[in-house]
Every structure is written in C-alpha cells, then in structure tokens.
C-alpha cells in the first residue's frame, strides 16, 4: 500500500471540522495571550521578540508565564506537558536545579570576562572524552558554530564549496538555507545571498554515489551532515553510510563535520561518541538542552594547530591579515561554562540517557500500538528519546521519503488538539521528544491523546 493510500485513511472532512472545533476551543482558552500579543504588535512584529515564536505555530500563539519540570503554563493559567521542549533547547525541563544553581553562582560571580574561567577545561576535556575529538571552541549558537567550521575548512582546503544533504538544517545561515532548483542551488527564504547559495551542493542523504560524484570535482571544502536527519521528521543513516562518507571526504581532500546540535541529546556522547564515528569537526548546540544560549564545536588536533597559527588578533594590524574569522564577544562566557559543566556532570549522565531512551521507546511502542488499533500500517520514528508518526510501513531513507509523512494539516490539527488537552506537541518538522524531566505517566498521557485524535479522523 502506498503512502498516498495510507494517507487516504484520514477523513479530510472530519479533519477540517476537527481543526475548526479545536482552534475555536483553543482561542476561548487563551484570551489573555491573544490580547497581549495584539497589544505587543505596537513594539514587536507579530507581537513577539523572535519571528519563529509566531511562525512555528499555525494556530494562535500563546504567552508563557513559567514552567517546572516537564510542564510550562501560559498567562491564561493553562498548563502543558511539553513534548516540543523548545525544539530541543529545553530537554532538561524547566527549572532543573543543577542548572539553576550553577548559573546563579556564575551570574553572582561575574557573568563574563572575555577571558577563560577555570571550569572551561572541565567542559572541554569531558567533551573530548565523550565525543572523541580533542579540541573545542565555544560559540553562542549552532548556526555560529557551523559558520566557523565552514570558514576554517575553506581556509585549510583552499576551496569554497560546501556539500550538504537534502532535508538538512544547519542553522539560519546563507550556506544552508538553500534548496535545489534544476541544476542550481538557490535560497529557500527571503533576504539571503544567491551568490553564497551557489557555493552549496545538495545531494540526497544515504546516497554515497551522489556524494562521490559531487566530491570528484575537488571543489568541496567541507561535507556537513547530521548523523541522522532530524528536521524532516527523522531519517536514520543506513549501515556503513557515515563511515563511507568519511572515507570519501578523505579520498577527495574535503573535511567532514557531524552536526549534533539535535542528536547529542539522543545518546551519551552523541551519535559520534556512542557509535565511535570518525570526523574532523563536531558541532553541538541548543545550550546542550539547558535553555542557556551557547554552542560548541570540536576538532582534531591538526585543525587546532592551524587555529593557533592563524589567531585573530588586534595586535599587528599592519600585517594585512587578522587570522581566521572566528569568535564573538559573548562566546565562552562564565554562564555558558557553568551551565555546560553542570549539564554534563549532573544531567547528561549515562543513567539519565538510558532512562530517557527507555521512555522514548515506550512512546514509539505506544504510538505503533495505536496505529495498529486504528488499522494503520504506519511506523513510529524512534531514536533515543525521539519518536514520531511515519505514515508508511517502511521508515524513510532520505528527505523525499520522509516528506510523505509531513502531513501539515494533520500535524497542525494534532498540535491544537493536544494543546486543548494539556500537551504541547512538537513542531511540524520534528516529532514528540522525551525530555529528562518526563516520566512514564507523561508518556502514557501522550499515547492516550494520540489514540483519541486518530479516533476522530481515521475512516
């Protein structure tokens, strides 16, 4: 049975009627949020400080008032069990005591000095041990980390082009906000450089032949990929794919970066460390799930030696070169170091990863039981704490196949249906994510609501 046939099991009239009903109910539950956002438009576009806070939700947005553990509440007093976890930036839950205590001490002692603090070594040495790359640098976001990795790779190789994969997301930067149009690579959003877009080459994930064809040009400075695609629901690497990509990058003189901004939350040491993958760079982001804005990237010793020889410095401005274009005034702050150290030592432990992995499997198993109950030959995505709705009998191997399960109307309606029943579901491109604050009761509640939702729309 094709994906189209499986999707046909959804009664579109019932789905449309359910969406109207649920959005009406949601509006009635959130009048203070609606009024606040409307008033806030006088000082902020869409009434929000960042456009995503309006654009990620096709139903009415809300205003948060606070949170604790796996739950947050809005200014209307509604409480939500969070399975979006701020798109993995809040995987430790709200108000985790190790992070609260560490960051509070850092603020009181001096938030930033534009100098290293003693605890920085504890963080970088622990990441080296877990991930397998010896040297690390801080940035403020994974977007900035990936930007610096691209610059270093271009300098080392003397090349300009970047190889990326269909379905990727490596941050809001010109090189990755692109798509294929015929034989060209073009910007996918407004305000981006068409010239920069041409430096990005896009091929399908899990296709080594396509990657080799691009690398044979000897124009590729950097191959960058998530070890599993996470922004088109979830696409896992086929056995040997990432190892093959490493071998190809070495054969043709390109560097390889594994972007673990999302997947570091999936396994102890990320997928790089847990699967002992080899690469030249690893990028981490989302504040490691603490909610604090910081990111890091790791590199080999050989690349670190290049950075040391080409230091960006204000000394000797008449030399004609200021070194590698890396760094930022607020990077590597005492707050970021404190949050990272507390996270690694007290939250991101082997025992906690094992616990959320079990909960993630319970969520995926529960969803597949519900699918079977409703006569749907669907699968659940699963990787550590991540689960989701695959509207096909076979899991996808690339972004094109994954897109067949990105039924926007169904996902949007499910989100507002869940919100009216005290669960905040994932954004369209992701899937429900178990946090370190969730428990078995939260998982059971999500599965019960998924059952009820499908009962409303499946023929």
Condensed summary:
This protein has 459 residues and is α/β, with parallel strands linked by helices. The protein has two domains: 3-95 and 350-457, Aspartate Aminotransferase, domain 1, CATH 3.90.1150; 97-347, Aspartate Aminotransferase, domain 2 (3-Layer(aba) Sandwich). It has helices at 3-7, 12-29, 31-40, 52-55, 85-88, 97-109, 120-131, 142-157, 194-197, 208-215, 241-251, 270-274, 301-309, 334-347, 350-373, 399-403, 408-419, 440-457, and strands at 64-68, 71-74, 79-82, 135-139, 161-165, 178-181, 184-187, 200-203, 220-225, 255-259, 281-284, 295-299, 379-383, 386-390, 423-424.
CATH superfamily of the largest domain: Type I PLP-dependent aspartate aminotransferase-like (Major domain)
Spatial strand sequence of the major β-sheet? 4-12-11-10-9-5-8
Q: Would you identify the CATH architecture of the largest domain?
A: 3-Layer(aba) Sandwich
Name of the top-level CATH class of the largest domain: Alpha Beta
What is the radius of gyration?
Answer: 22 Å
Instruction: Compute the average pLDDT.
Output: 95
Unreliable residue runs: none
Largest sheet properties: 7 strands, mixed
Shape: globular
Strands, total number: 15
Classification by helices and strands: alpha/beta
Strand content: 5-15%
* Count of runs of 4 or more consecutive helical residues: 18
CATH T-level topology of the largest domain = Aspartate Aminotransferase, domain 2
Question: Helix amount, in percent?
Answer: 40-55%
The rounded distance between the terminal residues' Cα atoms is: 16 Å
Q: How many domains is the backbone divided into?
A: 2
Protein name: Aminotransferase class III-fold pyridoxal phosphate-dependent enzyme
Cofactor: pyridoxal 5'-phosphate
Family: Belongs to the class-III pyridoxal-phosphate-dependent aminotransferase family.
Keywords: Aminotransferase, Pyridoxal phosphate, Transferase
